[in-house]
Amino acid sequence: MTSAQPLNVLFLCTHNSARSILAEALLNHLGQGRFQAFSAGSSPRANQQPNPLGLQVLERAGIATQGLHSKSWEVFAAPGAPHMDLIITVCDSAAGEVCPIWPGHPATAHWGYADPSAGDGSDDTKLEAFRQTLHLMRQRLELLVNLPADKLARTCLQGTARALSASASQ
């Protein structure tokens, strides 16, 4: 990986409205051009949009939200899609689903996070859940972006990403 060629990372979740959106925005923020993050869902609902509480948490953290939108993972399996180096599932339901055949056979890992939008809690309770999820993701993604280039080489990437799954407490 060179500075001219960022590592492309795709974050997957079921609906692509909360966790995967947070991860995409956060990695693009932290990645300093070394990483290009994307997100998608295995089954986003019709007219699905990013969760407004997630966008609010990102904005309050100083992380750009423009351009974030929910989309199907099929977009990234189609001809002409950006080549992915690493695909990370961030919710348990997407981790168990049969994924498309990804061009180039990228490295894969599962970094599970609880759904901050789940449940019947108040908006304040859910907002705090989004803050906590963003904090947990930041811990893991800071480890990723600070790894030396040899740990991000294609031959090591799968083991590196999977090791990070266990390295940050949830």
UniProtKB/TrEMBL annotation:
Record-linked Pfam families: LMWPc (PF01451)
Domain Phosphotyrosine protein phosphatase I: residue ranges: 7-147
Name of the featured protein: Arsenate reductase
GO process terms (BP): response to arsenic-containing substance
Source organism (scientific name): Comamonas aquatica DA1877
Keywords, ordered alphabetically: Arsenical resistance
